[in-house]
Write a structure and sequence with these properties.
With 171 residues, the protein is of the alpha+beta class. The protein has 8 helices and 6 strands; from the N terminus they run βαβαβαααβαααββ. The mean pLDDT is 90. InterPro entries: ArdA, ArdA_dom1, ArdA_dom3.
Length: 171
């Protein structure tokens, strides 16, 4: 999955133009290299003020209209080997856990994600079934009377969060 951003400038925008270009961030290894490319792209301006008008596959915590996180290229490198579901989970985790992406150590950030991420489930109740199977030695008779729905509700009152099928342990 490629992260990309549409880069224009405020001067062009203020003059009624959205002229810019979609840029794939995977083509750069540092923010300096990215900004250098953007400067060349908008060489028709003396001191271009970049405007990130649209983006794809970038968590909103890493980008805004006028700024890009210093850590974005480290994060892109770290997530480049992740499959789509895990990348989706990482984005969801960032949204719900609110880590300080600009200053947190990237390796520690990913360790925290890996510690918190429990997996993908169709429902909170499906997760409750797994917890019972893994943690409790209940007979089939007892399982047939067990209230999984209530157990799931209790689990997600404070210990876990369910976000778009992904389950995270609350730290």
């Amino acid at each position: 999955m490629h992260s990309k951003v549409y880069v224009g400038t405020y001067a062009k925008y203020n003059n009624g133009s959205i002229k810019g270009q979609w840029i794939e961030l995977n083509n750069f290894s540092s923010i300096e290299e990215f900004y250098e490319f953007c400067s060349e792209l908008h060489a028709d301006e003396t001191d271009p003020e970049f405007m990130f008008q649209d983006w794809e596959n970038i968590p909103s915590e890493l980008i805004s209209e006028n700024s890009l996180s210093e850590n974005i290229f480290s994060i892109i490198e770290k997530v480049s080997d992740l499959d789509y579901k895990t990348l989706e989970a990482f984005s969801a985790w960032i949204s719900i856990s609110n880590p300080n992406i600009d200053s947190d150590d990237i390796d520690s950030l990913f360790e925290s994600f890996e510690d918190d991420y429990q997996g993908y489930y169709n429902s909170e109740e499906d997760f409750a079934y797994q917890i019972i199977d893994e943690c409790y030695d209940l007979s089939d008779f007892v399982k047939s009377y067990f209230d999984y729905e209530s157990f799931a509700r209790d689990l997600f009152m404070g210990d876990y969060t369910y976000e778009n099928g992904h389950i995270f342990r609350n730290s």
